[in-house]
Each structure stands twice: as C-alpha cells, then as structure tokens.
Amino acid sequence: MRRWVACAGALVLLTVGLVPPGGGPAAGAPAVTPKRGGTLNATFSSDPAHFDPHRGTTAQNFVPLVYNGLVRFKTGTDVRVDEYIIEPDLAERWEISRDGLVYTFSLRRGVRFHDKPPVGGRELTSDDVVWSLQRMLADDPENIKRDLFSVIKSVEAPDRYRARITLSEPFAPLLANLATVFASIVPRGELDYKRVAIGTGPFMLDSFTRGARYVYKRHPGYYEQDRPYLDEIVIHILRDFATRAAALRAGRIDVVDLLPYGQALPIIREGNLAWERYQGIFSVHLRLNAAKPPLDNERARQALSLALNRQAIAIALGGGEGVVNGPVPTGLGKWAVDWRRLPYFTRDVAKARQFLREAGFPSGFSIEAVGGSSPDNRRVILEAIKAQWAQIGVTLNFRLIDTASVQRVRFQKDFTILADNFTLSSDPDSYLFLEYHSTSSGNVGNYADPRVDRLLEAQRRELDPSRREALVHQASMMIAQKAWIITTGDPIYVSLAWPHVKGFRHNNINQYLPLKNVWLDR
Amino acid sequence: MDRSSHPVSVRVTERAPGAAATLPAAEVSATAARRPRGRPAGRWIRRHPTGALSGAVLLVVLLASALAPWISPHDPYAQDYDALMRPPGGAYLLGTDYLGRDVFSRTLFGGRTSLSISLAAITAGTVAGTIAGLASGFYGGWFDGIVQRVVDVMMALPSIILALALMAVLGPRTENVVLAIATIIVPSLSRIVRGTVLQLREMQFVEAARALGASDARVLSRHVLPNTIAPVIVVATTALSGAILIEASLGFLGLGTQLPVPSWGNMLSEEARRYFEQAPWMALPPGIALSLTVLAVNFFGDALRDALDPRLRRVPS
Amino acid sequence: MRQFLLRRLLLGGAALLGLSVLAFGLIRIIPGDAVMAQLVESGNVSDLDGARAQLGLDRPFAVQYVTWLGGVLRGDLGTSFWSRRPVHQDLLAALPVSVELAVLAMLLSMLLALPLGAASASRRGGTVDLAARLLSFGGLSVPHFWIATLVLLYGSIWFRWVPPLGYVAPGESLARNLEQFLIPAAILGVHLSARSLRLVRSSLLEALQEDYVRTARAKGLPGPRVLWGHAFRNSLIPTLTILGGQFTYLLSGSVILEDIFSLSGIGRYVVESITHRDYPAVQGAILFTGLVVVVVNLTVDLAYAWIDPRIRYQ
Q: Residue A207: pLDDT band by 50, 70, 90 thresholds?
C-alpha cells in the first residue's frame, strides 16, 4: 500500500489549523500476533550529559524506556498523535480527595527494578516513590522542571504500596506532569547517574559508548507480562543530519522521528518506508524582554506581532508545510485557540506602522536577538522575521550562540530578544503559567500583569475540563494581546520506519516512548 | 653530491599544519638576487595556457563579485513567500532558496563576501607575516628567539581548531573571520620570510652594501625585501585558496559570516544540504563557483610560481 | 648532533609551555563559564558559588594555572567537567580514531602524490602532468564536507550503503573498520594529495635541474634511474616535512569529517569540550596535540639533519 505525494518543490501547500495525522501505511494494522525478539536501531544527534531524569534536559531522550512513572501517556497505534490519554503505570489506581488537594496512589505489587548493582532487582515500594518525588522537588540548580511539581507540599508513604501527595492548592496539570519523563521513579539511594540508569522500565541500559551508541536490553522482570517485544534497542549517536538520513535509507536505522516534512519528501517518494505526518508542539518562538526598551512599550510589541507573516514562516520551517501557533501550540488540540482569532496574529503592515508611530517610533528602531544554534530551524525563523520587520522599519540583528552561552543569557536575563523553546507538555499550563506568571522561575522575560496572573492561577486550579478550557482560551487571548512572546509556528513533521517495524506511532511528549510497543516482523 | 660544483643555495622548506600553510619549497639562489625585468607576458601565456586561462577566470570572478550590486537581478535579501525553493527558470535564473530568495543574486553577493574576506585576510596576514619574518630574520638574537617561540606555539595548533577557538572568543562576525584566517597564515609566512632573510643576510651583496655604510632600512628595502617577494607571492597565492576554503568551512559550521548575509560558505551549509535532493540549485551555484575559484587560484598560482622561480625558467631536460 | 637534539628539545619544551598558557587562557576568555555550561537550563540557581568552588574555579587564575601545570608535570591532566572521567582517559579513547584516520589519509595521499608527482615531473607540461594536476586540484578545491555529503547521499540511495555507524576497532573487525574509515580517509587523502603532489613535482623538478643530475645523465644513466635513484632521494626532505605537517594537521583538523562520519576523534573532542566549557578537557587536549606536534617536528628535524648534512641551524 503506497501513498503518492504531490511534488512539493513546485507546489507550496498552505496548511492552517489542525492537520489530521496519518499519511502512510504505518497506522492501524489489523490485529496480528506480534513477534518477539530482534534489535531495533534508532538514532539521536547528541549524547546526554547523564541519565538523571530529574536534572537537566538531555537525559529525557535516553531514559523513557528505562524508567516508569506513577502514570504514563498511552502509546500505540490505536492512539492518535494529538490524543493525550493518561493511564496507570506504576500506580494501578489513584484517589483524589474532594478538594483536589490529596492524591493517593496505590502501587502495583511485584514490580522489580533492573537486576543491576547496587539495586539488584529488588521490588519497588512507596519509599522509592517518595524518594523520587523529593528529588523532583529539590532545590537544585539543575532541577529545571521543578515548576512542574512545585505545587506539591508534601509526600508520604502511608504503607509499603501507597504514596500520598498533598498539594498546596488544586492543580489540574498534576497527572499530566506526573506522566512525563521528568517524574520518573528512580530507586532510592545515591546513584552515579553519569554511569548508570536503573529503573523499572521495559528496557535496561546495558552499555554505552559516548559519542557512539547506547544499548538497551529487555528487562526480563518487567511488570507488563507480555512486553516488551524487542530484545534490544540501540540508539546510535549520529551528529550530522546527512548521516542520519543516509543510515535510514540504507536500512541501518529502522525508524526516524521528528523529521520536517520537506526534508522527508525525497525519502517518502522513494517508497520504501512507511511514514506518518503530524503536527509538532515545539513552537519555536521569540521571547521579548519586557524590561528593555523599546520592548517595555506594549504598542511596540504589538506592532512587531502585526508585522509578521506567520504562515510563511511556518511553511519555510517545514520546507513546504507548517502550522501557525498561538501561545498554546495548535498541536494541543482543544486547548489552542484558532490563530486567526488571536489579536495581532494576522498580518497588517499598515496597522503595524501606525502602532509604531503611536508608540513613539515613527522611523522604527534597531533591536538585537540571540538564539541557540540548535535546533537550526531557529535561524530560519530569525532570517524570515528580520526580512518581515524590515518592512516596518525595524532592523533585527541576530546572533546564534552556543548552548553554554544561552544558559548564561537566560540566567542573567541578559537579552533583548531570545529565540527559545518551550517545555514540551500535553498540558497548556507549561506553555502559559511557566512562561508568563510573574512568580514563575521560567519567566525570564520580566512579564508581570496581575490580570494575567490571576487568570493563569485560576486555570491551573480549575479541575473541570470544560471550564478550564474556557479559562485557557481566555488566557491565550489576553497573552496574545500583550505580545510578550512572539510565537510563530511548527513544521509538519514526519516519522519514517521500515515496513518490518510494527506498532510505532509518534508520541509528541517523548519520541522514544513508543518503542516499548514496537515489534519487528521478520 | 659534489659540493664544489653546487652554487650557493639552501633549500628553505617549512613544515606547517593547516590548510593555508603547507608550502612548496622556495629556493633562492645567488643568481636570483636580481631578476631581469619585463619578461614578455606573451611567452608566459604560451607556456602556461592553463595558468593564463585561470587568470582570466579569476578576473571574471573578481569582476562579477565587485559588480554584484549592479548586475544582480534581485535583491539578495528579498524573500518571496510564493516561490519557496523554486527550480531555476522564469524570474529566478538559478531558482530560489528556502526563504524564496534568488540564488543567482546570492551567489554573486556571496562571492563578494567570501572573496573580500579571503583577500583581506591574506593581505593582512602577508603584511604582518612579512614584517615579523623580516625583523626576526634580520635582527636575530633574543627578539628572533621570542618571535620564533610564539610562531612555534601558534603552529602547534591545527588551524581549524585555532579558527574555532578564535571565533568562539571573538564571536561569529565577518571581521573576526578575517582576523582568524590572517592569524592562521602569519606564522608560516613569517617562517618563509625569515628563512629567506637568513640566507640573504650572509650573502655578499648584502655585506657589500653594509660595508658601504647603507643603513638597515636601506639594506632591508633595497636588497632583502625584493628577494622575498617571489616566495611570498607564491605562498600567498597558495594561502589564498586555503583561505577561501577555511572561510567556507567556518561558514558551513555557522561560525563565519552570519546569515542572512550570504557567503559561499554559509550558502553551502544546513538548508542547502538538507534539501539537496529536491532542490540542488541551492547548493550547486555557490559550490561550483567556490570550486572554480579555488581551482583557478591554484592553477594561476602554480603558473605564477613557475614564472617567478628563476631555476625553472631554464629549459627542462 | 647531540647539541642539535638538545637545542630542539629545549625549544620544544618552551613551545609547549607557551601552548599551555595559551590553552589555559583561551578557554577562559570565551564568554560563558563552566558552571553555566553544566546547567543545561537555569531556573532557580541557588548555589552557583558553591558549584564554582567545587570545580576549583574560585581561586585566582595564576593559582589555577600552577595547580594544573603541576598536575600535568606529574602526568595528571585533570578530570573532565563533562564526562567526570580523567582527561587522559578520554584522550586515549579518541586517539586511535584520529591516528588511524591520519595514517590512512596520509597513505592514500602519498599513494596518489608520489607516482603522479613523479610522472608529471618527468614529463613536464604533458597530458599526464595536466591530468594529475587537475585530479589533485579537483580534490583540493571541492570542500571536503560537500564531498562527504554527496558520498553519503548517493551511497545510501544507489547502493543502500552507509559506513558503519559506530567506531569499530580494527581488532574487532578489520573489514568494518576499513569500511568506516576508507571514505573519510580517501576524501582527506585526495584533499592532501593536491598539496603533496605539487611539492613532489616541484622538488623533483628542482632536483632534476641540479648539476649532479646533469652529470648523471651525461654519464649515460637511463632516465628512470636518474629520477628514482638520485633526484627522488633528495626530494625526500620536503616530502618528510609535508608528511609531518599533514599528520599534525589531520590529528585534530578533520573536525567536520569526524562529525559527518560519526568518528569520535581528538578534533571532535576539542570542539565539544569548548562547547561545554570543559576547561580541563580543552587544556589537556590542546597540550596533548601540541606535544604530538613537537614530537613529530623533532623527528622530522632529526631525519632532516640526518639526510642532509648541510642543514645547520644557528
């Protein structure tokens, strides 16, 4: 079964709004008995700094197979890419108190850690859960995702198989945050996370060579009886894009994920691989520093927003197809507002110029931006924005700097405009509260508006989904009005797999999570 | 080897890591002290057809780059969102890139950037290296010792690492690329000049000039300097092709001239590579232009060296 | 000779000292310090100073330098901030990759340059000469990272082939090891052969002009014998110089190719360490490279002096 794609070189497709996923034969095969065994080869572009899921951001790509959380996102070919379903993982059920402040998780019994020293395959108990949660709350400079959990006031283990979390206030995103890799449950005790990764997950980190490969072997004592199917997964570190693409086409790599559509086209056209397209939720954006003139002037910021042709940027990002994002990425479905309804999101050069005049800049101004050099689609955005702002008299001078310098810039809030990434999440809270609330540590742009604050606090406390949706939409509208962060778009992405790879479906939160369901048909 | 029949000549060779700095042997003999002037150009062209052709190609390239603002059909920065990655034809002679910009115009302007960087760097490096080599070789002593140790240190670092480190310290800007490339060729160039000066210093005509009471400056400028010009030109030409390639490497790594300002190097990097199969016209024009230019510089430099080296002017056996 | 050797050793040592200062200072001038680089993203940073003290970065530069230098002289290059392993261990892991790449590239470059250089020198101006020059210049003028890209692209499309994905030691499997190194070595080799070719050609040409060659010819010796027996040996010196220079360049200069072919060599190590502001690693790697350069230069100098007794340095 093959699907032919129109030549995108000559034809530019404009994609707005939601793009239905699916586009290849990878999805929805009829019920077949999966075969066991085999090695799957995957790839990633850089090494992790360590294997600690609670510190930093590089471990997240290498540990989702190694650890479990209390809950997890459902993965598999029966789940749509834009569906985020939370299901039990280490906790087989949980109870939430009426006031929404106390969560009691009942843990599965007989879950065993990997049989590696110093843990030695012992059983997981609530002590491990408490230990892990305390790590997630630790006041450590490398604990960047702390704000996902900071509402947690205390953690206890009433007995061996129950863990109780008490919040300081109701928190709607809690379960979604607990389903991320940042809430992995690790064995209690001090471990050298530079060398080992020991968890309860379907795969064990067997061995690794920095700069070369990371080998995971099946965990024989995994609690899900019939999983995983694979014997081994190898993640090869291939720094260069051309090498990754070549390795895939030559068959050395079995599956590649998160490839922008335009770049995947020649591979798709070859017709050897099964593929699937979806919207990403990375949402590369420009953070404006609201404390630095002229960006302290709201009219000026709104002018900058008005001057943009966001559709063109999104398309250029994807090499032919892309999606425009508001404050909440379009890939989050019902949480996002249609971008055409968002204030100042539709291009109007004349109005932009007028706003600039009102703001006191009749002849425009010059402004500096910095951005990390990876991922490199940031540069495309900056190039496009530079040309577009030039039309209203704003000269954008941008510099790409390496990751170490980005850290410094962000920490010292020493920027005028910063091209940055969001924390990937299925919950809009990460894209809203973390970024815009005046007390959030992720708020590096000096944003403070009491009305916005109240709305953001209200949405994260609201446990009723439809009421919360209204609040989130309201927040999006208000934040678009402030034009604090210029969001642009996301490419349409593609995942590619050789036909013998079965059961793979991309997961937006973590691209390696789906590998636990994969089996090889050969 | 029979020493008595061998005229005074010392082979001066340099070991030098790095793209711009590996040098052919430059031999200076006593007979080279005064080159006859005004060799007929026609004879040179006839004997070096490839060199002459290369010279012509270089001229065209330089002219096209210099005149880029006037001969470009489009603004190299104008983005046409209705024509993303269009193949050559129609309004866009060589097609458009990932932001709808005209590839032909960008190639012209890119050449302007790349060539001006390389030429400026080579000039600066040559001047600095010559001065250092002259002073070091002529005055000798502890000054020479120090300069040579510094040169040793600089040459102990591979050029690309030095360039990367310099760009990391200084920041990725065009001026810094010039500085980095110039820094790379200074050490080896100074060694060449110093070597030449060392021989010349002992030669009779220099001793004679000094005996006649000529000042250091006069000796340097009238006698020593002219004889260093030939090896320096040869080295500089070789270094030029290396400089163009280093600039391309830095541009490729994103450390050179920053986009959207086009240079051949940065036009050959990320997007051009990622979309090469479906849009090869993004990479081929700057790539071919680059290779052609480097090729022309090499051939031309070769022919120039043949012309300037007195020993090879003799009839080949 | 002994005096010569001693002098060169002293000079080499001085150069290394200077290099150590350069390495130490350069990495510290680059904005963004090591502690920041350790924090992948910084949110609520509480004990920045503590982290800095832990890495020993709170002491004055001079003290840090002397401490480090003292360690180096004892053979301890320090511990990498990033991998938390001793620097010399990381370097030794990267060394075989770089050495193999360098040796193979040099072999291939000589394989091309020597016969072609000799052929074009003996038939100067002929078609062979032109063809040889064209080939080598072609290799020199196309940026090597583009040749690599094209090889990978069309190798995977036409032949469903890609080099082995991770380093395979020659001991494990010689075939796969060569499969991995051959292409980058070939690209580098052709790239280098251009320069070597010109040198071989020009030095052979000069040698052929020499009086002793004319004497040999006058004596009736056949052409090839003159070429290989006499002229060639005397062009050995510049060839050696070139080889030495190539080796040191290749040792950490092939950074881009190491990236593309997933080889973790010394060049890659230096670049990554700079990005991570891994001070001990950068210092150690630069010093190490410098040491190799000094040793290679010394060897070349010795060979130089041994081959040609006329060579005297003041």
A: very high
Residues 49-108 of B with CB under 8 A from A: 77-79, 81-82, 84-87, 98-100
Cross-strand partners of A520: A501
Pick the residue from chain B with its C-alpha nearest to C249: B17
How many helices and strands, by DSSP H and E, does chain C display? Answer: 15, 0
Which tokens hold the place of A289? 């520093």
Q: Which residue of A has its CA nearest to C168?
A: A212
Q: Closest by alpha carbon to C102, among C253, C226, C229, C237? A: C253
Closest-CA distance of chain B to residue A474, Å: 32
pLDDT of the residue at B185 = 85
- Long-range pairs, C62-70, Cβ under 8 A, ≥24: C64/C24, C65/C21, C65/C24, C68/C24, C68/C280, C68/C283, C69/C20
pLDDT given at position A25: 44
Q: What gap in Å lies between CA C141 and CA A215, rounded to an integer? A: 40
Contact at 8 Å (CB) between B305 and B24? Answer: yes
Q: Which helix (H) or strand (E) holds B122?
A: helix B103-139
Report, as an integer, the average pLDDT of A418-424. Answer: 83
Which of B53, B32, B13 has the alpha carbon at shortest distance from B308? B32
In single-letter form, the type of residue at position A349 comes to V
Cβ of C274 within 8 Å of Cβ of B314? The answer is: no
Find out whether A54 and A69 touch, Cβ atoms under 8 Å. Answer: no
Which of C165, C176, C187, C282 has the highest number of chain A CBs within 10 A, making it the mutation to test binding with A?
A: C165
Residue B146 touches partner C, C-beta closer than 8 Å: no
Are the CB atoms for C265 and C167 separated by under 8 Å?
A: no
- The four Cα atoms A195, A198, A204, A207 give a dihedral, to 10 degrees, of 10
Chain C adjacent subunits, 3+ CB pairs under 8 A? A, B
The answer, for C109 touching chain B at a CB cutoff of 8 Å, is no
Query: Residue B27: its pLDDT value, please?
Result: 37
Is B316 part of the contact surface with chain C (CB cutoff 8 Å)? Answer: yes
Written as one string, the DSSP assignment of C162-196 is ---SS---TTT-HHHHHHHHHHHHHHHHHHHHHHH
A472-492 tens-digit pLDDT: 999 999 999 999 999 998 889
- This complex has an ipTM of 0.81
Residue type, C215: T
The confidence score (pLDDT) of residue C311 equals 57
Interval A346-360: pLDDT, tens: 999 999 999 999 999
Mean pLDDT of chain A: 88
Q: Say yes or no for a CB contact (<8 Å) between C153 and B299.
A: no
Contact A187, A169 (CB under 8 A): no
Burial of A270 (C-beta count, 10 Å sphere; 0-12/13-18/19+): exposed
**DSSP SS3 for A38:** coil
Comparing C-alpha atoms, which of A167, A139, A164 is closest to residue A151? A167
Query: Which range is least confidently modeled, A170-174, B186-190, B282-286?
Result: B186-190
What count of CB pairs under 8 Å joins B to C? 182
- Name residue C48's amino acid: L
CB count within 10 Å of CB A191 equals: 16
Residue B61's identity, in one-letter code, is V
**What is the average pLDDT value for chain B, to the nearest integer?**
78
Which of the four pLDDT bands, split at 50, 70 and 90, describes residue C138? confident
Is 80 exceeded by the pLDDT of residue C30?
no
Mean pLDDT of C91-108: 89
Unique residue bearing structure tokens 């398309």: A315
Give the pLDDT of residue C245: 73
Q: Looking at CA atoms only, how far is residue B176 from chain A in angstroms?
A: 14
Question: Three-state SS string across C104-146, please?
Answer: HHHHHHHHHHHHHHHHHHHCCCCHHHHHHHHHHHHHHHCCHHH
